[in-house]
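Materials and Methods. Structural model of 4-hydroxy-3-methylbut-2-en-1-yl diphosphate synthase (flavodoxin). The 381-residue sequence of 4-hydroxy-3-methylbut-2-en-1-yl diphosphate synthase (flavodoxin) from Parvibaculum sedimenti was retrieved and submitted for structure prediction as follows.
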Amino acid sequence: MSIRPWRDITRRKSRQIHVGSVPVGGDAPITVQTMTNTLTSDAKATIEQIRRIEEAGADIVRVSCPDEDSTKALKEIVRATNIPIVADIHFHYKRAIEAAEAGASCLRINPGNIGSAARVREVVQAAKDHGLSMRIGVNAGSLERDLLEKYGEPCPEAMVESALDHARILQDHDFHEFKISVKASDVFLTVAAYQQLAEAIDCPLHLGVTEAGGLMTGTIKSSIGLGSMLWAGIGDTIRVSLSADPVEEVKVGFDILKSLNLRHRGVTIISCPSCARQGFDVIGTVKLLEERLAHIPTPMTLSVIGCVVNGPGEAEQTDIGFTGGGAGSGMVYLAGVTDHKIRNEEIVDHLVGLVEEKAKEIEAARAAEEAAKEPRVLAGD
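The predicted structure was written out as tokens:
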């Protein structure tokens, strides 16, 4: 479906960098990332988790490298996975150099916190030699002491000053492949800091509300914070920080982007909250559909409405729709047009089959379109 003018979001113009093969910033799609919570030194467990993260559709994954055992394991982890890996180094410059040599695509590091100018030069040179980018990560809970003394407390001005100070160190070393984050657990502080930073520098911005909480509360806080910034055109890559499985972070990240028409992945289910008019168990049906359709990355829309009050209208706007009726059956809509009836006990299996078939059609058409763009080699060339 076409995007209406009142749905348009004008993104802030930023320069583009790369995290491995993934472009971040410029006109690139807004990327979704997460972070492993296994011990990085346990390569087997970390690889297994990253593979699940890849299946969920994440573009980038971050792993913590607090010690030498972690950077030793990183080489095996990089070799066994496909997604670009950001190595979170904390304060130890040797870990940054080891991670670069192990095959990381990006370093999460604040150059002003790793010691002498000589150490900064070594890290920057390692990044240049191995083609890495960096993320400057400022957190309200770990601001430099001099900034806390200057401003009295964590505030947007202190966070932005910290970020720009670290950025200046990299720029002075002729290194410009970096993005910045300025995160806080407070939504207001986070948004205000990003707003100021967006006006002060043209590098890509990594969005996140840090320590947002558990699955429910963290999703709400992140949706409000990230959603308001993305709506304003701020942000080039996002991470939803949840005390939950990293796969859930990826799902929520994509749902935030889908809700703003910024990026689409998988099936968007439009469903009613249900009421006494429902002709079938809407809540149970939607729960099963979400589980059964989680494997489909192809963007499409599916409406599941309990009765005919809003059902036909929603179905007209979706790829596939189902509206509950009477006598134990309901109507299936295809491309917004009434097509056939099915009995309530067939709803889940039938809709899953229709969605899977539609996904195959969309992917086949996409493949054919891409093939048509490829230059043809004529006989004798």
